[in-house]
Amino acid sequence: MITVHSGAPKNRVREHQDALQAFWPGLQVLAGDVDEGAEVHSQYVRVSDSNQFTLPESFLFTGQYYWPQYYIRPEIIESNYMLYKATKDPKYVDIAISILNAIENRCKVVCGYASLKNVATGELEDRMDSFVLAETFKYFLPNFR
After folding, report:
1. For this structure, is 57 an active site residue?
2. How far apart are CA 133 and CA 135, in angstroms?
3. Which of 52, 123, 133, 140 sits between 20 and 30 A of 96, alpha carbons compared?
């Protein structure tokens, strides 16, 4: 990762990552840069793994959170699928299973799935975005074929 400065050495740009940026490794794979995509994806998986396989909305790779929510976004599992398709490495199936189990164990409620208000505490939020069914679960299926 690159540290960026905003023109003045004392004014650092925020160095956080967002869960939405987890699409990038998949795009790298589509562009033919599989090794770099795998390396970047492994960083997102490491952060996810350290939070019981739920990726915080915004974080530093050091483990600090900017926004500790987990909205069950599809980007990490989409990239995981792209890497699995490109490499056929079974570790990507294992990652998909871990993420799916985390969603099932941490987010399932009587009427569907709830977002986490905080990945550290597991506190639920009364929220389930449409992309959970329309995208997140859709990207799980090809990981298991």
Report:
1. yes
2. 6
3. 123
